[in-house]
Prior knowledge:
By secondary structure, this protein is of the alpha/beta class. Helix content is 36%, strand content 24%.
Amino acid sequence: MKFFVLTATLMLALAAEARIQVLFHPHDPTLEEIASCIANAKSTVDIAMYNMDVTDQSPVIQTLKSPEVQKRIQSGDLRIRMILELYATPELNDKKRQAVEDLGIDVRYLGKTVKVHHKFAVIDAGGALDRVITGSANWSVSSYKNYNENILFFTQEPEVTSRYQFEFNRLWDASNEFGVAKNYPDVPVPSYKDQPDIDVYFNSPKTIDPTSTEPSNITEQIVVLIRGAKSSLQIATTRVRLQPVMEELLAAAQRGVKAQIVISQDDFSQLQPRAMYLLNNPNIQLRIKFYNLNVGNYLTYQMHNKFMIVDGQTLEAGSFNWSDSSENGHIENVVVLRNEAAQQVLPAYQKEFADIWDMGRAQYAATLDSLQKGQHPECVIPQMVLSQPEIRQLLNYGRDCK
């Protein structure tokens, strides 16, 4: 716990300077920061999570198991609720939920055809130091060590806290109890004044609350942002498969907007049907994070970010993959930051994008040369962010990889 306490002290010092921070997998201590936030919670932690590790390898689990946190949970001083969706077999899902329940956490799951794909937590909503954690990353060690992810930390941002707490309460009421109900009262949703620099969107209303009048189509929000672009788009997302988004990207390119897009290897094999949108305009530069000549082996080092920078001034980030399944089959969230709110994290996002854009490219020539000489018998190659022609050139020498 000593490390977590030190991390918490650092976070508190940083919070005095900036209320919005971002950390990135695989090179920042993201899970340690999340664990620190939980360890220092005053009274309530509400978590909505698609997937997470429950082993002692996870700093989050280490903290939840610590004597200090367990004492507070058992006494009722700290109340933790979790919507834990999961995606394995029912038996494995129940085993993982039980492991969380055994830590004194009240666990539920939605259990519908539409899956909760959130990765957020609300801590001490309405308190003196409330926090929201959200982003692209499940709280898993494989994500932490291997994927490209981003996690945002909001401190004392009333609109963000209110919107995410309302979303949690809405999903909690619609979810199934797992194990023994603790009957914790709902955490009240704090009031807030609308902040023009921050917008938060969920697509849950159309699934959970059909009477809601709030916007519930995340695709439309992304289209609006692209439509408003004047000069540049920098996009790091697992996949780009939404027809309205592709049409808007092409329209932006045709009016002179320069778009740089990085997607993950799992989207490579499906690029050709979308070539007219993503590959045939000189203002659209598309690269793919590539790391295995067996194209179907794409899970190990995913480009799992889902963020976009518009004109170097506006940020969109969250859990939302740019696909129909994400819009219609998952429950998702995105946050849009502008002006002063965006400037707190945009330099970090811009550096991260630049690093991803050039990832491993210095190794390309040597990798191609070794393949040509038959000196690279395995399908695994260095992680590189490459264009489609560059990948096809590598694949010419990796025909035995299937």
